[in-house]
Amino acid sequence: MKLPDSPALPPHEWLAVAVTGAFLLFLLLVNIRAEEKEFFRDPNESRVHSVHVSINGAVSCPGVYICEKGKVLQEILDEAGVSEEADLSDLHIKGKILKDLVLHIKTIKKITVYLEGAVSKKGAITVPRDTTLKKVIESVQLLPGAHIKGIGPLTRKVTDGEVIKIELQKNKRK
Predict the structure, then answer these.
(1) If 118 and its partner were Cys, which of 4, 65, 109, 143 is the partner (CB 3.0–4.6 Å)?
(2) What SS3 class is residue 72?
(3) Cβ-count burial 122-140 (b if 16+ within 10 Å, e if not)
(4) What is the rounded distance in angstroms from the CA atom of residue 85 to the CA atom of residue 165?
(5) Is the pTM for the entire model greater than 0.70?
(6) Which residue(s) pair with 53 in the sheet?
(7) Mean pLDDT for the chain?
């Protein structure tokens, strides 16, 4: 059985049909690929690749720093210019930054103690709070013959305004 003659499409219309079909196939493939990515994406994986770290306190350049997620905190602190008086004891500076942070960098509290007696430099010195007497003695130059046994336990913490008197050892006569 022979089909009735139907009018044939001119070549430019065939070209338009082919281009339209190829475009629809392309859109279909892109959509399928996007759904696969979404389907296989780890739900715990964040889409955010940068984090904001706000730093103030004992730094020379306070502000908000934008960095890649996973950057080491020490690198951001270096950018902020941490001062010598900064107390970083509460921070895990080798840790990676995984989310936005707000950091207030505290200043180490200092106290003044006074040295008298058998030390090369008498007078006031400033030390961090919670410094032991041993650390104070180690930080100064004692005169020859200095005797530290009479000043108390070396493990005790010195107090603000404390006067520490280092005696010279008394020579025993024979």
Answers:
(1) 143
(2) strand
(3) eeebebeeebebeebbeee
(4) 27
(5) no
(6) 65, 101
(7) 86
Q: Is 58 exposed, middle or buried (0-12, 13-18, 19+ CB in 10 A)?
A: buried
CA 66 – CA 71 distance, rounded (Å) = 10
> CA torsion angle for 39, 41, 43, 45 (degrees, to 10)?
-170
Label residue 57 exposed, middle or buried (CB < 10 Å: 0-12, 13-18, 19+). middle
Angle (nearest 5°) at CA 40 between 34 and 41 = 85
Residues 6+ apart with CB under 8 A from 160: 111, 112, 113, 129
Q: pLDDT band at residue 48, thresholds of 50, 70 and 90?
A: low
Is residue 28 packed enough to be buried (19+ CB in 10 Å), middle (13-18) or exposed (0-12)?
exposed
Q: Name the helix (H) or strand (E) containing 53.
A: strand 50-57
C-alpha pair distances (Å), 148 with each of 29, 86, 122, 133, 142 = 84, 32, 15, 10, 9
Q: What is the pLDDT of residues 66-95, one digit of tens each?
A: 999 999 999 999 999 999 889 998 899 899
